[in-house]
């Protein structure tokens, strides 16, 4: 819900925006409380155990949305995946393991799930030239900016390093800011010019 609002402020009139909701599942990190979550979270450090089955299942759900859009006439090279926090993590994983060449990835305040599986997990390198905009608040207490920087370095070993942009925002916590949203808008405009 909140990201649909955030996107409305930078929305391009000729671009279709799809904001799927994560299912409600028990999350280990939050004492097994049921909450919206794409996959289970056991910890938020680079070496924390990960819900591999849940991550892969969530990625398949997003790939089904991509397939649906392609059947409706949207070429994959006009599709950008993006998200914030866990949604950004899922966007990175999904795009890098996708069989179709996508336009780009917007990855806000996030990390690359199952990072040890890359670069091998990247589907035949079909997205090795994908453009990635990664943004992170420098004061993020949930996913420290250092984790974001490590993710950017890892991404440079998976895709063409010149295609990875990593922008940080001073004073920003685990949230977004107008400058970040402007960077997202410019990224989308560049990758999806009006046709």
TrEMBL record:
<protein>
    <recommendedName>
        <fullName>palmitoyl-protein hydrolase</fullName>
        <ecNumber>3.1.2.22</ecNumber>
    </recommendedName>
</protein>
<dbReference type="GO" id="GO:0008474">
    <property type="term" value="F:palmitoyl-(protein) hydrolase activity"/>
</dbReference>
<dbReference type="GO" id="GO:0052689">
    <property type="term" value="F:carboxylic ester hydrolase activity"/>
</dbReference>
<keyword id="KW-0378">Hydrolase</keyword>
<dbReference type="GO" id="GO:0006631">
    <property type="term" value="P:fatty acid metabolic process"/>
</dbReference>
<comment type="similarity">
    <text>Belongs to the AB hydrolase superfamily. AB hydrolase 2 family.</text>
</comment>
<keyword id="KW-0963">Cytoplasm</keyword>
<dbReference type="InterPro" id="IPR050565">
    <property type="entry name" value="LYPA1-2/EST-like"/>
</dbReference>
<keyword id="KW-0443">Lipid metabolism</keyword>
<dbReference type="Pfam" id="PF02230">
    <property type="entry name" value="Abhydrolase_2"/>
</dbReference>
<dbReference type="GO" id="GO:0005737">
    <property type="term" value="C:cytoplasm"/>
</dbReference>
<keyword id="KW-0276">Fatty acid metabolism</keyword>
<dbReference type="InterPro" id="IPR003140">
    <property type="entry name" value="PLipase/COase/thioEstase"/>
</dbReference>
<feature type="domain" description="Phospholipase/carboxylesterase/thioesterase">
    <location>
        <begin position="1"/>
        <end position="191"/>
    </location>
</feature>
<dbReference type="InterPro" id="IPR029058">
    <property type="entry name" value="AB_hydrolase_fold"/>
</dbReference>
